[in-house]
Specification:
There is one protein chain. By secondary structure, the protein is an alpha/beta fold. About 35% of the residues lie in helices and about 15% in strands. It is built from 14 helices and 13 strands. It has a seven-stranded mixed β-sheet, sandwiched between helices. The protein has a four-stranded antiparallel β-sheet with strand order 9-10-13-12. Strands 1-11 form a two-stranded parallel sheet. Helix 4 runs parallel beside helix 10 and helix 5 packs across helix 6. The longest helix has 25 residues. The chain is globular, with a radius of gyration of 21 Å. The protein starts with a helix and ends with a helix.
Length: about 375
């Protein structure tokens, strides 16, 4: 009796709901505000042409420059294929499938669940409080068997920072029991909030970073895992032999040069100014019920008629990210900060939509 290809697959993979990235969701727009990318391309020149040779597993110049940028030693830095690979490497190195668990606090980034489920590790969740801060007593009750706790700060998709005192408490209650992974994909928009400087105090802390957001290199797929040397050594045992191609390492090194970092900071300053302007304009739109404070390159807003707002913009070629199915985010759309012109197009499209009072009258 033959077995179908579907039946040959692992049961947990057959049951898996894949992470739907912005590009997989599709759309035919010309204003892409659904993936938290920088809206304009940054300049670079390929200087490495010896593609007949395999690249270094950990490109020396990239590691040195990122260590300098992050204020760490080179043995505390691992470069990988985006922060997403860092999420998975930690699970592969520290979690026994069918035995251990990871824990995180929705609403948050969807890849923590997908990576764990793919590997066959239990997913445990503790919903954030109404203010999107950690529910520490509930987390403490659910830590038995947990090897990794993921905390995204600033959090995606809410845009808020996690209270640093709560993070310290979490690191204390997990000491000697589990790793705490602080996902800092958006930290360049609020650099003083980074916990990378805490590595000296907490051997079980891991920090994830990326060049995809503020560095405007989402298409490069280059990220960093920051941890104490003992953790990095273990992660090196499970990473692919050649995680970064030569062109990727070449461009990453350029982005991390003094000029590259200065350009990134200039872009961040411009985006933050555009973000604050967009928040002010959104708060004057009748169809917007609430706009949340953001420490990132995106804004989360709650709409009176979410589906209508999303569809109206979609039909005008403006693609947003619907977050309304996430816990506590009913009616919410996430808007990436684009150029000022793109943000103005969003406001122009939303201005004509009815607000709460008008919606009640129509009902």
């Amino acid at each position: 009796m033959s077995t179908s290809i579907e039946e040959l697959a692992r049961a947990n993979v057959r049951a898996l709901t894949p992470y739907l990235s912005a590009r997989r969701l599709g759309g035919n727009g010309d204003v892409w505000l659904n993936a938290n990318e920088y809206p304009l391309a940054v300049p670079f020149e390929l200087s490495q042409n010896t593609l007949n040779r395999y690249p270094e597993c950990q490109p020396k110049q990239v590691i040195e420059r990122y260590a300098r940028y992050a204020g760490l030693a080179t043995d505390q830095v691992l470069v990988c294929r985006g922060a997403d690979e860092g999420i998975e490497l930690v699970i592969r190195a520290f979690c026994e499938p069918g035995q251990d668990a990871v824990l995180f606090c929705p609403p948050t980034y969807g890849m923590y669940a997908v990576s764990a489920e793919t590997i066959g590790v239990e997913v445990r969740t503790v919903e954030a409080r109404e203010d999107w801060q950690l529910n520490l007593p509930a987390i403490a009750e659910r830590l038995d068997g947990v090897k990794v706790v993921y905390v995204c700060s600033p959090n995606n998709p809410t845009g808020n920072l996690v209270n640093p005192d709560d993070l310290r408490q979490l690191l204390e209650i997990t000491r000697g029991k589990a790793l705490v992974v602080a996902d800092e994909a958006y930290i360049e928009f609020c650099p003083s909030a980074s916990v990378a400087g805490w590595l000296k105090d907490y051997p079980h802390l891991v920090v994830l970073r990326t060049l995809s957001k503020a560095f405007a290199l989402a298409g490069l797929r280059c990220g960093f895992t920051l941890a104490n040397a003992e953790v990095i050594t273990l992660l090196m045992k499970v990473i692919a032999p050649y995680p970064l191609s030569t062109p990727v390492a070449d461009i990453a090194a350029q982005a991390l040069s003094e000029q590259g970092v200065a350009l990134m900071k200039q872009h961040v300053s411009e985006l933050v100014a555009t973000r604050e302007e967009l928040i002010g304009q959104l708060r004057r739109c009748d169809c917007v019920e609430e706009v949340f404070t953001s420490n990132t390159n995106y804004v989360l807003a709650r709409f009176t008629a979410t589906s209508q707002a999303f569809k109206t913009l979609w039909e005008q070629g403006i693609i947003l990210r619907d977050q309304s199915r996430q816990p506590g985010l009913s009616g919410c759309l996430r808007i990436t900060i684009g150029t000022r012109e793109e943000c103005n197009r969003v406001i122009a499209a939303l201005r004509n939509l009815p607000g709460t009072a008008a919606s009640r009258e129509q009902a």
